[in-house]
Amino acid sequence: MDMKEFKLNYYEKLYLARHFEDELMKLFADNKVVGWIHSNKGHEVIGVSLALAMKSHDYIVPHHRDRPAYLAKGLSAKSLLAEIMGKTTGCCGGIGGELHIMDVETRIYGPTGVLGSNLPIALGIAYANKLAGNDHVVVCNFGEGGSNRGSFHEVLNMAALWSLPIVFVCENNKFVEFTPMQKHMNIEDVARRASGYDIEGIIADAFNPMETYETFKYAIEKARRGDGPTLVEAKTYRLDGHYEGDPMKYRDEEEKKYWLERDPIIGFKASLLNESIANESELESLEASVHQVLKEAVEFALKSEPLKVSDTFKNVYA
Asked: CB 3.0 to 4.6 Å from 168: which of 19, 200, 226, 231, for a disulfide?
């Protein structure tokens, strides 16, 4: 894949992730979604960069704002949307909902109900891969708040001791629910915590698509070579509230305006035009194809059968 093809593919996945959220918010407003929605706007560069830097046999053990990674790694918009809407055609039969997305085929081993509790699961998968002697890498995502939990420190210690093929990705969006980072941490950079376990800590600007991709590519290939884990702190900004409908009274409007003006998707599109990677008509065609994919996904999910109460017992063994 040459650079033009790569960058257009990258932009298409960014655009898909952003507009998937737009469609999801419309469905939520129309009471078509069961439960709450936690927007990932601002996180798109992280998920897309990770998926493009990974191989198909690599695993991702994500957290709850990683829909961009799901879509970029190959989970279909139809399957993902149907799952969030509690339909039987979803990737987990509608049982998982928004926060518990899992898909064995694309090696997405979904988030858990407690933030930070996905870290030990990722550690176990990485340990199994090392014992098997394969070249599979595990990527584990969590927020900066998750790095305050005991599981984070236990897992980094064990991963370092055993030199496991794992990349830890802290998606630092500056807020833990409604609490700004500076109110729950004395350090500015989560990446500094890597030094306590004698592993490499790197900071990536997740508003810079190519820098973020190159950082993840480096860390993943390092793990694949057997050179141990890396902690990458991808600094971003949560463009929306903690949940859909969050009034965000805890956030300064000028601060939000500053980050909105740096929207990485708008910036990346401008760079494609400025560098003559693509022209307006090429990008319009690409965007139209994404909207068609999303239109079909919405129609598919709306027509699919909803989960019945009896379906919740299908996978219960005792």
From this structure: 231
